[in-house]
Amino acid sequence: MLDPQAVPTTLRGQLRRHLGTWVWGAIYLLTFNVMRAAIDLFLKRGVDDLHDGRFGDTSRVGLLLVALTAVAVVVRVRSRVVLFNGGRDVEYELRGALLAKLHTLGPSFFRRMSVGEVMSRTTNDLAQVRLLFGFGALNVVNTTFAYVSSLFVMLTLSPRLTFWSLVIYPPLILFTRAFSRSIFLRTREAQDALGTMSDRVQTNLAGVRVVRSFAFEEQESRKFDVVNRDYLEKSLAIARIRGSMAPMMGMLATLGTFVVFWYGGRLVVRGEISPGTFVAFLSALGRLAWPTMALGFMLAIVQRGRASFSRLEEVFVAEPEVVSGAAPAPARVEGKLEVRNLSFKHGDRVILDDVSLAVPAGGSLAIVGRTGSGKSTLASLLPRLLPVAPGRVFLDDRDVCDLPLEVVRKSIGYAQQDAFLFSTTVGRNVGFPLDNPDTPDAIKKEEHALAEAFVLDEVRRFDGGLDTIVGERGVQLSGGQRQRIALARALLREPPVLVLDDPLSAVDAKTEAAILEAIERQTRARTVLLITHRVAAASRCDSIVVLDEGRVVERGTHEELSAGSGLYARFAREQAVASELADLAKHDADELAPSAPISVRPLESRP
After folding, report:
1. What pTM was computed for the model?
2. Within 13 Å of residue 499, how many CA atoms lie on the same side as its CB?
3. Start-to-end C-alpha separation, the chain
4. Which of 182, 223, 258, 515 has the most crowded Cβ, counting Cβ within 10 A?
């Protein structure tokens, strides 16, 4: 299996890595053009033999030309196979390296570059790079050899005629340089516009329900029309340049042919060159016609590939916020977790300020606080999903910054509050940590995890059961179902440390009680950090830490904190009152509900 880390991510690096492919392709193309030069020279001999009446020699030359042409066709096909495959190899390697790089980048990168822009670079830009290293490389090498072999034949046949036929090439070179620079700049602008358009489409698809609920379809269509038109105009600018370039190249090439007929015809009439020389010269010059006329198209391919590669390099050179440690992985992780004087800022805003806490292996800790107190940020810092300073978070008394990221994240399972589901089946979402989620043993594990998350019965009532497609980001499910399926995925993983970020925010009281029992069972097998704002959930943990405005303001057991006068005690009283009011409202509703249906009959008319 290819290691994405070993793949060069620069243009020169890729050229060096696949140098053997380009060398073999160049050898095939060189052989092809040498054979084409030989065909031109044998053509001269055949025409002259025919002109002088040596029909036997003409037949032998004709057979030789047929054989040379057949071999040349095979060599030409082989050159395309080698170089086109080389382009696809580059695309394959860069796609893997790009995905591996994106996995290392943190939130700050994705705040600068939208998902739609990233998708544009991983699809359209990679396709342009493939064309650069495949079709573009083939035509650059082939054009070079075609010019050299053709000029060799032309100079061999008639230096004077060669000079007059090449009069038009100096202006051709000047035009080419001017067009090349313009194509590169316009292509870069068009690729950027495509990224913006892709982001607009991705945003609308992801938020289609919000757009519909606000009846904003028309407004979003107008916004899309703006970015779509911008991409259209930039694409048309490239098309206009390429469209004007091809006729100019063709006109110059035709002018060169006219010069050859005019001057070469005079040489034949005066007997200074033979008819065979004239025909062979035209054949060699004709081999320059297509490369000359296609020069604009070829340069467009090269410049678009260069522009796309430069856009990919913007991803490859991005610095990851979180870097893996180099210490050897421990043989076993017990699950002891400690945070020492941890602080974290987002810009100038302090999210966490000097937070310290500790959980023994197999223990449980609840982190309670108001919305915005820093609970979820703390949860993200523990498995190093956000950058954490060295000497702040310890796993089994070892700094997590020293450990390999893979070890840290496999040891600290994290169930996020904003549950993310992949656009696949329920079973494959839950079985995501498994090597093969579709085996019978895997399905049993998935069902057990779903039962622990108190959602198995609901899943079984779906039309497809575990094979039900959940839709993009789980759009087919309710918020509570998404949250519990994500919880089941975290439970299935069975890490030494389990961090649950408010897993009860979207469930009712009955479901909450069942999930709390499952979480309590988890505390017997692993270290659990439960982030919650519900006192009923926190009371089941061994100890509790209360956060307020990023600082630890209280710590202790449920009994100790409830008996005090701090923030936790206030939460307990408020939630107790809210629970009593909810029970009273339910009781009143039951009292008012009729015990039997009331039948209503129309009034009888009086006599």
Report:
1. 0.69
2. 26
3. 96
4. 515
